[in-house]
Specification:
The complex is a heterodimer of chains A (299) and B (320). Chain A has 299 residues and is an alpha/beta fold. Chain A has eleven helices and twelve strands. Chain A has a domain of 136 residues: 3-Layer(aba) Sandwich (Rossmann fold). In chain A, helix 2 packs across helix 11. The two termini of chain A are 33 Å apart. With 320 residues, chain B is mainly alpha-helical. A two-stranded antiparallel ribbon of chain B has the order 1-2. In chain B, helix 4 packs parallel to helix 6, helix 4 packs across helix 11 and helix 4 crosses helix 12. The longest helix of chain B is centred in the last third of the chain and has 31 residues. Chain B is globular and about 60 Å long. Chain B starts with a helix and ends with a helix. Classes of the chains: A alpha/beta (299), B mainly alpha (320). At the A-B interface, helix 5 and strand 8 of A face helix 9, helix 10 and helix 14 of B.
Amino acid sequence: MDEMNETQLVDTSGPGDRLERDVPRRGEDAEVGDHQRAIESQDIILRTEGITKSFGALIVLRGIDIYLKRGEVLGLVGDNGSGKSTFVKILCGFHRQDEGRIFVEGQEVAFHSVKDARRHGIETVYQDLALVPALTVYQNLFLNREITRFGHLRWLSNKKMRQMARKYLDDINVQVSSVDALIESMSGGQRQAVALARATHQESKILLLDEPLAAMGAKESALVIDLVKDLSHNRGVSMLIIDHNYQHLFELCDRLNVLQEGHITLDLRVEDTTMEDVTALMVAEYRRRITLGEEELRV
Amino acid sequence: MRRVSDVFFIRPESTIVVVCVALIAYFSWRNSAFYSYTNIITMAQYTAPIAVIGAGEVLLLDLAEIDLSAGQVYLTAPWIVVLLGQHGVALGWGIALALLISSLIGAFSGSIVVWLKVPSFVATLGVNYVLAGYVLVVSSDITTDMRGTTGEFGAVMGISNWAEGLWGLGIVLVIWALLKGTVFGLHTTATGGNELGAAEAGVRTRQVKIWCFIIIAFISALIGIVDSIRIGSLDPAAPGLNEMLAGVTAAVIGGTALTGGKATVVGTLIGAVVLGVLEDGFNLIGISANWFILVEGAVILLAMAVNVQLGRVTAKTMRR
């Protein structure tokens, strides 16, 4: 698939026309072979098979197959409403899939809650950050995994949590004025850094990031991008990132999957493609769908 | 000097502390009977129910919810004790059962809010009127004596001068510890501050909400029973909404935000003391009770205006 894309992408015709003609989509022979080889690899830490999800009459996911290698950063792109966030929420145990299977390190798993996913080393940084503005940095870092004493009283061990939060933030070079600072007093970049720190400070193996750089300025984005790179390169954390900004994705990711109409339609290695090509691929796909839609209407 | 100003910016209850001290000084200056032993007991008895209902409302306000039925639960629980007595249930068991039934009423309100998605304002208003109607029906709108009790049990449950004040203080301290020191309190603030975010972090936000409704019903019923044992009679026409509003007022002037995620039980206690001091002080210096309501409204407006402005300054200062 990768070789094939490389060959096609040097074609001199218009990108949209070219891709409509030539690019094999997920499910076609060439890619199936490559995908099959990948999922049989021992390096796969997370894999899904045929994940479907509907909300009432609305079918959001129609059978998602993805794989994520150890230490790999996989970007998931798609239009608004394509089901990216829903897919991430299934992987982290917030939603349950209607059908399909999830494998972590080769073992099939069933997530009934966010805690279930955490037990398998999956952590998430959501689009809305899931931070509580009225709580402090250390309270957010330990939310729902608090260090407690006095048994069933579940009395908070604030001193211990403060110490651990300070140490961990220093370890991953996240600068905050104090672990007692309220989240509401922090900038967007600092908040995102805290959210990332929260997701990784419990030895997580897989990090799911839902638009980690949304609505951030260049300086704040740089802070988060550096942190993501550090977590991936130096700590071996595998990541799945949703982002609409291709520049960010190309800077962070090893591989891109395109999610359209509830299916993964393309699987590309970042080193084998360019931003212009991915844009063209997306546009071509939408043109194809519009054409198909018009044909269906005529029929 | 800088530290003093910082305290005012960061601690939302600071304003009400100053108001409280000023009021105590003023009424003490106007009438020396204000700080007499008997008057302090009277103020403690008046303040206790407001402080307890207010502390319960703090839990709900922290969740960005409200329980309008808390005052009516406070008035209904003693009626349950009386009715159970008419069926031969011993006083101790009657109190225990009344507390259990009140807790179930709280669970019912919470369930309506959480599972049927009815706004708490509406759900608890409905529960309030159901309870008020129930009391009128079972009492035939006739004032009744509370069941008599003597000995140590009676003293502890309200007959002793300090019983109600101590019950009030004890319950408020428990709520303060629950909110500030425990995982439950942290999850309550998290749910109120960002419900979706807290749920995404794995906090069981629905359970947290239902438990808060149970807790406020339980403590309102408890202080209601203590209060009625002290007074000795039950008035079926007493408006529960007034008690509830006094509790919410104490919470709000104490620095608790109506928008959730910011709550102070200590501020609520001081807010309740302010209301007690105002009511008692006006009586002592011979000002009409009608003025009390007017001044109470003015105090709410003033305290809220000051707290909102201090909150803005704090946010700006912290961002810098």
